[in-house]
Design brief:
Its EC number is 3.1.3.2. InterPro entries: Acid_Pase_Asper, Calcineurin-like_PHP, Metallo-depent_PP-like, MPP_PAP, PAPs-like, PAPs_C, PAPs_N, Purple_acid_Pase-like_N. This is Purple acid phosphatase. Keywords: Glycoprotein, Hydrolase, Signal. This protein is an alpha+beta fold. It has 2 domains: 144 residues, Immunoglobulin-like (Sandwich), CATH 2.60.40.380; 456 residues, Metallo-dependent phosphatases (Purple Acid Phosphatase, chain A, domain 2, 4-Layer Sandwich). The strands form 5 sheets. An 8-stranded mixed β-sheet has the order 13-12-11-23-24-25-20-19, covered by helices on one side. A hairpin with a 2-residue loop joins strand 14 and strand 15. Helix 7 packs parallel to helix 8. Bound molecules: 2-acetamido-2-deoxy-beta-D-glucopyranose (9 copies) and fe (ii) ion. One 2-acetamido-2-deoxy-beta-D-glucopyranose binds next to loops.
């Protein structure tokens, strides 16, 4: 049985004038047999632990409630671009009883317009009725402001309803019109969780104070699925998994007071934080925590996201002897199963198939011919930005559809044939799923790139979570190249950004099949955008998360790699100076510069696209 949006609901949504993303579809053909709260406290798997000071991390909500005991609250506010407009997304633990409403205007003291929107929700586990209301999101509201002036500051205030407190009067700026040649800066990052990301967070706020236009996050958002790090025996190469005797955090720095709380009786001392113990161990709570942490960013500039592998489901790690597998599949604690057998049904329905990701963000897929938060594009000044789904919806994608699990003659896989991260397709597949050209995403990318007016947006920058090239060679890279590299070269994409590998890596300009385009190299820090011949590839997986850095033996660095930093966390600043120059700066967590690249575009040939 599949639950899906009925056409009547779809019609209602359309009539509401504010198209919400279609409700995610989750296959429930086989029952979930794990614990009610899939991951609680390992000692006392209830929502709030055993009440003996178990370390639980919290972050302030977007709106401080006006009363001491609020019954509902605005916990997260997150902006995103729409063509000629903005989407104001906000999150509350309970419904509002009315359409979500925002008052807005061009002056802080005169919010003379009102816009209303729509609400969506999912069966999060545990529900917010069991969680503190200032730390829980279950209702997701989208209010859209359309036909705004480009490059203009607007003020807005989310209205109170059903127990919430109205937000402060906040502001945002709309995207500059395509063709506007005023310089601007963007913060680009990927693979950002909570642990290890403190420096990146600080730099993010600094870049915004320097007037960055928006943030572009290339997937792996929050690492909510990594709650397992608190209940699995730690791997030696995960520095965050201290065993109780260590007194320092990865990267140094003082231990926050909340980590110093003594372990509850019965807790295994070799897990979680520096003193042992789990650090925020519920999937949905991890999402809430991270989104609330980012409020200071997401409520003031658009926060544009892409899907990564960590958004797929409540878990992705599996292996023989995995305690988690016994727990999730069979609700058995402190025991292991001999073989890997996490399946699509190992997570509760609300934690599969990118459900949380689809509810917790609202990207302009629908408005730009793409699909939801998966693939979309937008213009800002001299740049056309293209977001690609590197996880699903192309031949051999790393998170794969049920079609790929099927044995001959089957129409539906058995649980054993699936894996927990099976996901998508989110677009149509018109033909064989092994044929890239059958995919809606491929067709969309071709059409989107073909429609770019290079006179207005001479720069075209694409991003997906998955790199096409790296010194860390992996089979998915060939698949994403097979799917998209040809189109990107054909239409002259200038730069391809990605993450997934937890380091900073800048490649030499690369033509088809990874040939180094010597003609495009001026010097180590200056490339020429050799449109149609080569692409600048950058990997930005170093924002910081509980999995720490990826590492590579120095002797394995390939000649395609110009710069590799396996040590520092941080983000990138992309500055578009004009139609001929953009710069790229890797800013480390302490503010120092890790790398710089200038990309130069020569005068375009008259009238021709490339
Ligand atoms: C209003 O909030 C309460 C919790 O305070 C909740 O039980 C109720 O369902 C909400 N009303 C609506 C219409 O969602
Ligand atoms: C904890 O880790 C430290 C540092 O790796 C190691 O020296 C020590 O033996 C470990 N203790 C236990 C109880 O595993
Ligand atoms: C977020 O912004 C508020 C208000 O400006 C400020 O008080 C708070 O310290 C900021 N939080 C962080 C983590 O920077
Ligand atoms: C888990 O099992 C091991 C051995 O089977 C036992 O020593 C340990 O006390 C158990 N831990 C808990 C928390 O039950
Ligand atoms: C996982 O494997 C164990 C034993 O190997 C078995 O008892 C269990 O039913 C399997 N679970 C699933 C969901 O296949
Ligand atoms: C995921 O959701 C999409 C629709 O959004 C659906 O077509 C697909 O079958 C689902 N995939 C899985 C593996 O549940
Ligand atoms: C890359 O190499 C493969 C075989 O090695 C070849 O079939 C393909 O055409 C090449 N791609 C391009 C764009 O040249
Ligand atoms: C880079 O290394 C590959 C093999 O690893 C070799 O085929 C290629 O010629 C080298 N390219 C350059 C430009 O040195
Ligand atoms: C573009 O910007 C760069 C860097 O600021 C500057 O050096 C260059 O002169 C500018 N070029 C044009 C054509 O304005
Ligand atoms: Fe990843």
């Amino acid at each position: 049985m599949k639950s899906s949006v009925t056409s009547a609901t779809a019609l209602l949504l359309a009539l509401a004038g504010s198209p919400a993303a279609a409700a995610p579809v989750v296959d429930t053909a086989y029952p979930y047999t794990g614990p009610d709260v899939p991951v609680g406290d390992w000692v006392d798997p209830t929502v709030n632990g055993n009440g003996k000071g178990f370390p639980r991390l919290v972050e302030p909500p977007a709106v401080r409630p006006a009363t001491a005991n609020p019954t509902n609250n605005i916990n997260v506010i997150s902006l995103s671009y729409l063509p000629k407009g903005i989407n104001i997304h906000f999150q509350t633990p309970f419904g509002l009883g009315v359409a979500p409403s925002v008052r807005w205007g061009t002056r802080k003291d005169k919010l003379d317009k009102e816009a209303t929107g729509t609400t969506h929700t999912y069966d999060r586990t545990p529900p917010c009725s069991q969680v503190v209301v200032t730390q829980c999101s279950q209702f997701f509201h989208e209010v859209q402001l359309h036909d705004l002036k480009p490059g203009t500051t607007y003020y807005y205030q989310i209205q109170a309803a059903n127990g919430t407190t109205a937000s402060d009067v906040l502001s945002f700026s709309t995207a500059r019109a395509a063709g506007d040649d005023t310089p601007f800066t963007v913060a680009v990052l990927a693979d950002m969780g909570y642990t290890n990301a403190g420096g990146t967070y600080k730099q993010l706020l600094d870049v915004l104070h320097q007037d960055a236009a928006f943030v572009w996050h290339g997937g792996d958002i929050s690492y909510a699925d990594d709650w397992y790090s608190g209940i699995l025996p730690c791997e030696d190469d995960w520095p965050v998994c201290y065993n109780g005797s260590s007194t320092s955090l990865p990267g140094g720095g003082p231990i926050p007071d909340e980590y110093k709380v003594p372990l509850p009786a019965g807790e295994i001392a070799n897990q979680g934080g520096p003193q042992g113990g789990d650090m925020s161990v519920l999937y949905e709570s991890n999402w809430d925590l991270w989104q609330q942490w980012l409020n200071n960013v997401t409520k003031q500039v658009p926060y544009m996201v892409l899907p990564g592998n960590h958004e797929a489901a409540c878990a992705e790690f599996d292996g023989p002897g995995n305690i988690l597998t016994a727990y999730l599949n069979d609700n058995e604690k402190n025991t292991t199963v001999p073989k890997s057998n996490l399946t699509y049904y190992s997570c509760p329905p609300s934690q599969r198939n990118y459900t949380a990701f689809q509810h917790r963000f609202r990207m302009p897929g629908a408005e730009t011919g793409g699909v939801g938060n998966f693939w979309y594009s937008f213009d800002y000044g001299l740049v056309h930005f293209v977001a690609i789904d590197g996880e699903t919806d192309y031949a051999g994608s790393p998170e794969w559809p049920f079609a790929q699990d099927l044995k001959k003659g089957e129409t539906h896989p058995t649980p054993e044939e699936t894996f927990v991260t099976d996901s998508g397709p989110f677009g149509a597949v018109d033909g064989d799923y092994n044929d890239n050209k059958a995919y809606q995403q491929y067709k969309w990318l071709a059409a989107d790139l073909a429609s770019v007016d290079r006179k207005k947006t001479p720069w075209v920058i694409a991003m997906s979570h998955r790199p096409m090239y790296s010194s860390e060679v992996s089979s998915y890279q060939q698949k994403i190249r097979t799917a998209f590299e040809g189109l990107m070269l054909q239409y002259g994409v200038d730069a391809y950004l990605s993450g997934h590998i937890h380091w900073y890596e800048r490649l030499w300009p690369l033509g088809a099949n990874g040939t180094i385009d010597r003609a495009a190299i001026v010097d180590k820090h200056t490339y020429i955008a050799n449109t149609g011949k080569s692409i600048t590839h950058l990997i930005n997986g170093m924002a910081g998360n509980i999995e720490s850095h990826s590492t590579l033996d120095q002797s394995k660095i390939l000649n395609i790699t110009a710069v590799l930093d396996q040590e520092h966390y941080g983000l990138n600043k992309l500055t578009v100076h004009n139609a001929s120059v953009l710069t790229w700066t890797f800013v480390r967590g302490d503010g120092s510069v890790g790398d710089e690249l200038t990309l130069i575009k020569k005068k375009k040939c008259k009238g021709k696209q490339h």
